[in-house]
Amino acid sequence: MKKTTKPSAIIFDFDDTLVDAKPVISKALEETFKEFNINKEDLKHIDFNLSLRDYFHDIFLDDAIAAGKSYYKNYYKFAENLQPLKYAKETLDFLYRHKIFTSIVSNKKGERLRQEINDKFNWQKYFVNIVGSGDTPEDKPSSLPAIEALKTSGLDDYSNVWFIGDSNVDLKTAENLGCKAILFGTYPIKTDVNIDFTVKSHSELLNLLEKTYA
């Protein structure tokens, strides 16, 4: 792992970076595909880490709006099963104690994202800004949501911002912003982005932060 310096700010992805969302999202998509007679085997070209507004039109065409409503109806049925990843809260506590400017940029619908952070997990104190799909004219991998997330940071140089996420969409966002790209998790991904470093878990991330701030 490359030698690290203290970040000027940190941006987290949300789903599968801070919370274990894959089971909930998968079930909601399966129910929606079933309702609209979509065969998932035909969707291998779809990047499900993009926002729904970016990829639902490719799948459902003229039914995209109705399918979006169906998806969120199904998502709400399973959302109670959403759980934090192990040691995610400890990571956030560390950043909060050290007064590190921390925000979230997610491709989850902004209203739902804030509801989960504020009401389900009570994590609102940890994040200066929470930016979701629809909050800016473009979603990840555009840099616009990340710029919005950093708008009160006072930074005009993003080169030492850490963007932490589990997908190529997150890495592309970091590249587009011009900040450090940190790949989180154990899932192998294909990317042409220069990854600054990889952390497999919050235990590993917390250990890295503790060494950085020692």
Describe the structure.
This protein is of the alpha/beta class and 214 residues long. It has two domains: 9-20 and 83-212, HAD superfamily/HAD-like (Rossmann fold), CATH 3.40.50; 22-81. 40% of the residues lie in helices and 15% in strands. The protein has eight helices and eight strands. The longest helix has 15 residues, at 64-78. The model has no long low-confidence stretch (mean pLDDT 93).
Write the layout of secondary structure elements.
Layout: E1 9-12, E2 19-20, H1 22-35, H2 52-60, H3 64-78, E3 83-84, H4 88-97, E4 102-109, H5 110-120, E5 130-133, H6 144-149, E6 161-165, H7 168-177, E7 180-184, E8 197-199, H8 202-212
Parallel strand pairs: 1-4, 1-6, 4-5, 6-7, 7-8
Antiparallel strand pairs: 2-3
Helix pairs in contact: 1-3, 2-3, 4-8
Short description:
The chain is built from eight helices and eight strands; from the N terminus they run ββαααβαβαβαβαββα. By secondary structure, the chain is α/β, with parallel strands linked by helices.
Principal-axis shape: globular
CATH C-level category of the largest domain: Alpha Beta
Q: Which strand-content bin applies to the residues?
A: 15-25%
How far is the N terminus from the C terminus?
17 Å
Task: Find the CATH topology of the largest domain.
Answer: Rossmann fold
Alpha-beta classification: alpha/beta
Number of helices: 8
Name the CATH homologous superfamily of the largest domain. Answer: HAD superfamily/HAD-like
E-strand count: 8
CATH architecture of the largest domain: 3-Layer(aba) Sandwich
> What is the H-and-E element order?
EEHHHEHEHEHEHEEH
Number of separate domains: 2
